[in-house]
Every structure is written in structure tokens, then in C-alpha cells.
Amino acid sequence: MQRRTFLKTTAAAVTATAFTGLGPAFALDNVVKEAGECKIQWSKQTTSICAFCSVGCGLVVHANKSTGRVVNVEGNSDHPINRGSLCAKGASSIQMTVNADRPTKCMYRAPYSDSFEVKDWEWCKKRIAKLIKKSRDESFEKKNADGNVVNRTMGIASLGSAALDNEECYAMHSFMRSLGLVYVEHQARI
Amino acid sequence: MTNHWNDLQNSDCILIMGSNPAENHPISFKWVTKAQRAGAKVIHVDPRFTRTSARSDMYAALRSGTDIAVLGGMINYILQNKKYFTEYMVEYTNASFIVGEDFDFKDGLFTGFDPATRSYDKSKWSFELDSKGNPKQDKSLAHPRSVFQIMKKHYGRYTLDKVSSMSGVSVQDLKELYELYAATGTAKKAGTIMYAMGWTQHSVGVQNIRAMAIIQLMLGNMGVAGGGVNALRGECNVQGSTDYALLYHILPGYLKTPLAGQDTLEQYNKAFTPVSNDPKSANWWSNYPKYSASLIKAMYENDDPKDAYNYLPRLDSHKASQYSWLPLIDRMADGKFSGALIWGMNPACSGSDSEKTRKALGKLDWMVNVNLFTCETSDFWKGPNMDPKSVKTETFFLPCASAIEKEGSVSNSGRWMQWRYKAQEPQDGVLTDGHYFHELWEELVHLYEEEGGVYPEPITHLTFNRMCEADENGKYHFSAQQTARLCNGWFTRDVEVKGKKFKKGQQVPSFAYLQDDGSTTSGNWLYCNSYTDEGNKAERHDSTQTEEQARIGLYPNWTWCWPVNRRIIYNRASCDPKGNPWNPEKAVIKWNGEKWIGDVPDGGWAPGTKHPFIMLKHGMGQLFGPGRVDGPLPEYYEPLECPVETHAFSKQLHNPTAVHFEDEEKAVADERFPFVASTYRVTEHWQTGSMTRWMSWLVETEPQMFVEISPQLAKLRGFENGEKVVVESVRGSLWAIAMVTDRIQPYKIAGKEVHMVGMPWHYGWVTPKDGGDSANLVTPNVGDPNTGIPEYKAFMVNVRKWKEGDA
Asked: PANTHER family under this entry (chain B) (predicted)?
């Protein structure tokens, strides 16, 4: 059955059920059965969780099997919290990923420059690591004013992020603390 | 949330205060209206009439920042009219504890206040102890120094007239509110609270929530289905990012950041491991040394935790006034940081006082911003009032993979850890955040090994590769699955724990098996049990439930929830001391004579053998909370910017311990800034809009900055609906489109008319064109003394007509 036909039949079934009151929902049963037999052929489905608020609504993401690119994001009707529904933001989720305005290259702005220039990650990585090391080595305190051991970096601040996955949060925590950072904050504070 | 989203359907009365879930957590409202259809009352108390108010059975408008007056009045009402659930309150809370003789409260100040440091000596609020070191109790509640009697005295001052005069809520509305909500103080009724930043973002934020926690404990609403204290978190993983401690004061699993002077792991553990001599107190934090050692072992697997403890940086104190967001930005503005790593954030719009924040970014030598889209932070150097030629900050923008371009888990407000799968590969040149962290770490290890440097061991010893998988060439890459395994934890050698034998490399089945000797790793003890030898439980999509579980919609096999898949925490309090549910119709757990059935209980001990609040030293819900920095009981204070010079409850105008900067001016009863202002969100945008302002469908629906203004204020200022106006405060100004609406009404405060305006904070100058800028240009750098969270929700502004030349 085509998706469009399925939707039409569902609408008809809902109407039929509405008019037959508490009578047996024969049409709906058939539709549910038929819908179960429908196969999506051209896309691969994966599940996800909405990236906006903290309700944690389930998503189904469809990617074109031949290009591997995402073509649709919708609510997961199996998910106990949202049962397939989404708000305006959640329903727009695809635009967060599939969006012509998303930069795909690292950008660098030199001191006092009035523009960004494209740089590759390898270059940025080397430069950023050098800067982190310089700031750390220059501002590292082994002891505080009272003479207690503190082993901390005073010259670098870390901000972020509630937008990371748990596993990335753990990686970030480990990395920042290994650098000796004490000024570690993020969205939860503000 | 102590409970979870589906559980809202079990409530008999849903109080929504300090939040607007129909707008900001729209799908949660599915469960609110389900409860309502089953007969529950829905009450909204908010400065503005919103989409939530429109669906509520009762709405009351309060002046922003006066919640403690309204809640203190409710505590008084419950006490005066004996609406509390007596057995629950006596058995499960500290109502019967005797407070020491040093405690007193006079004219807005508790004992122990030092004006020089604006802080309290909390030892003055201690309980009186018996010979075993346990708090003395009087279960008749008659002792004049019992918590119950102290509360009666304290909240007896919160009369209807005083509460009304400060909050602007009419006496009649207050009575109706109190009566409706206090009706849940029986065994078979449950009331719940849904709050969000409308409560936290105040200079009394923590005490707002404390006040409600007191109400919930008195009414017996904690641990039960349809009850609890439910924080609606703002971001998809702000629960997880807090659990994982991307905050100055904690390490993963709410362990404390080490302090200067705690030179050894032993000293550190001793300082933060509470001791109770009450055999009925589970005192769960007595396991602290197991969790700290397992965390350190997860970070430094090749070191003994005792040695690797030295790799952790230490703070001078845990004070919010020293290290939290506001002092951090202040320190940046003073030029004391040379670099900043800003990940998945847009502080140029999200921090209070955007102008100060944006200028502070210009004091850095270098800054890295990682985001999906460019934003006001990555581009700050070319923003309004900036001349790029005079901004030194060397700036990097790194594009990151989106949520559906990687795998990993996020934890929602209900503590459900839910796995996401990768639907597509990121574009060439785009990495996940995890990959950026790992590759930067590798480069730093390389640099320290090559050049040497200051104390390199914490970096070079970090076993980051245990969060990775190696490819065919032996090169390590960040792996979410591998990291999730580490966060749960594994055994580092063959051991026997509690009569069970485990092999090296086996996953730890739950935190009850974690050890303090380095034989276990666990990146976050709260998540131990999420990834066992059975696999990654966050991936589970199984809706099956037992009959008892289905009755309240627990869904124990759908994903996984911390701690140990317990869906409603403190659930031992849902039963009487014999193990019978207070409300058998909606039982969370039940003792069947041998064991608990239903939800995972808060410990398997037989009924009556342990107090229910196992994370607290004494095991009892804290009506009297001697741990907060601003007092053991919530007390009314005005926001640090307010329209009045005095208030009805004491001579102490503001929270005396609030975080603020002496040299920054505040508008108090200042005729230049006569209107109360608050910031908020709309469904169609998210946070600073750094993502949603790039999404055309959403921008079309909400294209531009606006300010909601009452018809009365519009008349006073001569505004037309739709006109461009200026909102200005002590700190700055911005333009907004005047939205003249009946949804906002002036308040009657101490006999005078006080106006309020409200603004969304989603906009910024980068995009869309003519969309306006951040509402945080006008918000103040003041905050709660416990958390440091800024007071975005109540401050003072002026509104006036826009003219050529205005921003």
C-alpha cells in the first residue's frame, strides 16, 4: 500500500469508528493489520531523541538507502513519552542537520583580522593544542596562596555543554580536569 | 525530576509554577491534560497568562520574584489548618527533630550572619544530638524547638494580607490556590509540581524550590506516583551534562571537586563521607570512597587511585561567588584568562549582561567555539560596538556533527538515559565533539612528550584511549559505546564482591559492587548498571510491564533510568512503615512479604527497617535544611533589582548572601527603571536561537524580537501594538516590537500599581536580518548564593519609544 493510500484509509477508518460509536472498529483493525505489512523500501530507519528540550521525545530518522543522506525526521509512535507527536521545534528537526547554512569547514580568524578564513582541522588542532599548552604552562598553580597543593590551571575557562551526549560530557570532563581546569561551567548554571 | 514525564498522568493536582510547559515542554502537556481528563486539577501561577494558563483550571498572576511569599503562605495555611499528612510527616521528615539552642531568626536574618563576609556560620543551625550523635526527636511535635514548632512560628508571619500585598495575588485567589493544593495532603491523593527556570533564575532560586519541597514533604507527596518535585530541564541533555559534572563544584555523579588542603584521597573522602549512628539510616553517601576511587580509576586506569588523586585540580572553596558563571565572566572581563574553550554554547547571548560578556571575550588571547552554526559568540569580534581591528582574540570555529550524525545517549528530565543512533555520516571536515576532544588530547600528549612542560602527568597518564576503539591501523578513535561501558565501569582484576566472583574486564552489574581499592572503574557511579554484561540498556525499546507497573506507566524496560533503573526516587516513602502503599490504586512499590514488587525500591531492606530518604545523612526529608548557605528555611526577600524600597516580611530587603558585584549598579525603586521585567522562551525557538534562528520553518513563525506589554502600560507610554520600542536597564538596551496584550496585567503591590514586561531571549544580531538582539543585554549579573544561577527572571527596566539612532 502506498503511504498516501494508507493515510486516506486511516482517515476513513477514524471517521467510520467515530460514526459507529462504540461498535467494533472493524475498519481500523484492518488498517492496523495492513499498515503492519507495509514496508519502507527506499530508506533506512534509525531512532533518535529530539535535540531540543528535556522531555526526550523519540524520533524516527529516515535516510535514503542509496545516498545515505537523511530525508525525513518524524516522531516515534512507539515511544512511551511522545507517542509519535512532536512540537514545532521537534517537527522541524531535519532542518538542524540538513541545512545549507551549516559550515562544513573549520574557520580561523587571526588576531585583529576582520574576517574568518577556512583552515583544515589538522592545522587548527596543532594551533589550538599549542595555545592550550602555552596558557596552561603559564598559568598553572601548584600551590595556592596558603601553600596548599592545588595543581590547577587558572588561565583557561571551559564553557559547555548540555548539547553533548553523556559519553562526550564524560570525555570533556576527563579532558578539562586533566588539563587542570577549575573554571568549568555550562548551560546548567545559567 | 524525582518522577518522570509519563507519571504526570497519575497526579490529582498539578501545580505549575515557575514554568510554562505548554509552551516550552509541549509534549509533557500530553500527560498533564491526560491527568486533567481523569479529574486532576491543573493550577498555573505565573507572572504572565500563557498557553499553560489557558489550559489550567486555575490561574493566578504573581509579580515575578515573589514565589516565596506565595509558598510561605501555603506552608502557613497547611500548618494552621492541619492539612499536612501527619503520619508521613512524623515518620519520614525531620518535623520532630530538635534544633539547637543557638538557632534564631530575627527580622529577616538567621543566627550566624557575618555582615563583613555576607555569609552564615551554619553550625548555628545544627540539630541537638543525643548521646549516640543522632538528632533528638519529639514525635509529639510539641517541643518549642522542634522543627515543626519553629516552622509554625516562622511561617505564621506569612499572612494572606502580607502575601497578597507583595505578590499581587488577591487574597481570594490565594485561598483558592491553597485549598486546592493542600487537598493532596492525604494518603490517597498526590500533588505534583512542575517548575523550571522560573524558579531557579532568582537570587532566592534554591529557596523557591526548598519551599515547595517542604510543602511536598508535609503533604506526603514525595516518592508517590503523581507526586514529587519535578524540575523541567531546559535542554535535551542538561540532566546528563549535570550528572557528568561540567560544572566547577562537582565531579561526575555529584561527587565534590577536591578542595585545597585535602592533600590525599583519604582526606578528601573523609571530608565528604557523612557518618550516621542511626541503624535505620541507610546514609547512602557512606559509599562515597567507592565512587571516588572508581571515578579516578576510570580516568587513570594505570595508576593507583591514591596517586592519581593528585592529578585532580583543587578549588579554594565551593563558593558560587568564586568560580561559577558570573565570577568566571567577571574574571574574563578583567583579562585573567588567556584562553577559552566554548563548546556547544553561545554565551554572547545566553549569559546575563551580554555587553559585558561580549567585551570579556575580547580580553582573551584565543577562543575556540564549537557549534553546528556560527553564532554571536564565534563572530563576537565583528558584532555591534566591536571594531575587529582592535579585537586581539585569535578565534577558531569548529563545525560539529549533529545529534543524528553520531551515536550516544542523552538523559531527559525524568532521568531516562536514551540512546541515539547515527543516521548519516557527517560531511567531510565535520567531526563529533568526542572526536575533537580525543584528537586535541592526543596532540597535547604529543606536545608534552616532545617539549616537556608543567606537570604533564595528569594529561599523559589520562587513559583516554579506553574511551576509544582502534581501527585496523591501530589508530584510536573516540567511541560512544566504549565510553558508555567505561561510565558504567568494569572490574580491573579478578575479585569477589558480596559473595560473587567477577573476572577482570567484566562489567560491574550495579554501583552496589563498586570498590574503593582500584578494582573497579566507573566514570559515573549513578550510571553504573546502565551498561552491564547484558549490554547497553539505554538502547532498550521494550514496552512490556507487569500489571502493577502498567497501572502507573513505569515502562521499566524502555531505555534505562538512573539510579539502577528506579523510575520514581524515594519510593520507600510511598508506603507506610509496614510496606503497604499509601494509595494501593497507584502503588509504586509494595512489600509482598518477602520482597518489594513494582518499581526498583530505594534499597531492598524490609519495610520499617530503614528511613526512606536514603541519600540524606539522617534518612528523613528535610523540612528544616541546615545545609544551604542562605538559611535553613526559605525566607522572603526582594529580587536584587525591585520596584519597592521595603517589603512586608522584614527589614532585610534582599537575600543578604546573594552573588553580586559591589561595583555594578542595581535599580532598586529607581524611577528611571520603573517596570519589572522577565525573560522567557517560545515553542518555536530554543535558547539563544543559535540553532533555531537558522531553521527557516521556525524563523517564519517567530521572526523577530518582541516585548509583551499590558494595554495599561502601552497607554501610559503611548505605544501602539506592533510599534518598535526600546527596552533599557542599568546595563544596556535593545529594540523590540511592542506586543500589547491582555495576557500581561499590572499588579497591585503594597497599594501601588506596578507594571511588568516580558521578553523572549532567543534573538541575536547574526541572523535573521532585522531579528533584533539578545534580551540578555538588559539582564543583571546577580545570582543565587547556593548555585550562582543569574536572576534573569526579575529585574528592572524602562520601555520607551524607538527613535532614529537607537540601537
From this structure: FORMATE DEHYDROGENASE-O MAJOR SUBUNIT, TUNGSTEN-CONTAINING FORMYLMETHANOFURAN DEHYDROGENASE 2 SUBUNIT B
